[in-house]
Amino acid sequence: MKGVIVLGTAGSGKTTFTANFSRWLNGNFLIKSCPVNLDPGASSLPYEPSYDIRDIISVEDLMRRENLGPNGAIVRAADLIVDRSEDIVESLTSLDCDTLIIDTPGQMEIFAFRPTGRALCERLSRGMRLLSIYLGDYDPKRDLEDLLSSAFLAKILELKLGVKVIPVLNKSDLWGGRDFSDVWEAVLRGEMSVLEGRNGVYADALQDLLKAISSFRSPIRVIPISAKYFQGFGEVFDSLNEAWCSCGDMT
Ligand code: GDP
Ligand code: MG
């Protein structure tokens, strides 16, 4: 079995990608791809999940039963996911599916900054060949600092989760015909040229951050996609296959 964990900040398009990529895989290849929901706070989903975490842990239930506010309930849900991770992974690995596309909590902090993500990824990696996709969310109105923090987050997640991260830049349909993935690539490679025209203390600090990013250099290609309009999925699939081939056998 293969698995793809879909990561990204709130609103980056994780749920849209999970729904449409899995639909696309099923339509184009003889692959049984199943969307999985690991977001205990999801209200409605644009796909029919093969497994839904809300059947056992739901933010809405926790708010009602334990009288918690929304953030308290999200944190509580994250801790419960760790407690139940053996059961969750057991249910996922026994699904009748070739490839799981795994949607994660809207608030990525749960995965990035708490034990939840690592606990699940470690256990999932024992039962399947697991990769992750990090969805960057970019439109031309954003600053370089936004791309930098996003690039850092992708790297931190790779270190923290112990799973290879494939960087993808979503919402390309909003770029007005330009391709911004090369800017993110340059940031991930730590190229100083992205700082052109910036001076002062912040420019120095940004330079140090770029150096730090380039120090955990890995071969980087950022794939531009539009999850909403099914664009760029072929390249994502090629990139996943390449990583799967290089990290194990093909069974
Ligand atoms: P999540 O919080 O990461 O799960 O994000 P969602 O999948 O719920 O998407 C958040 C918002 O971004 C929704 O309004 C989506 O319709 C929108 N969205 C997602 N992908 C795209 C895309 O490729 N292009 C555009 N224009 N909007 C998108
Ligand atoms: Mg979502």
UniProtKB/TrEMBL annotation:
Matching Pfam families: ATP_bind_1 (PF03029)
Keywords annotated in UniProt: GTP-binding, Hydrolase, Nucleotide-binding
GO molecular function, one term: GTP binding
InterPro entries: Gpn, P-loop_NTPase
Family: Belongs to the GPN-loop GTPase family.
Protein name: GTPase
Species in which this protein is naturally found: Korarchaeum cryptofilum (strain OPF8)
Species lineage: Archaea, Thermoproteota, Candidatus Korarchaeia, Candidatus Korarchaeales, Candidatus Korarchaeaceae
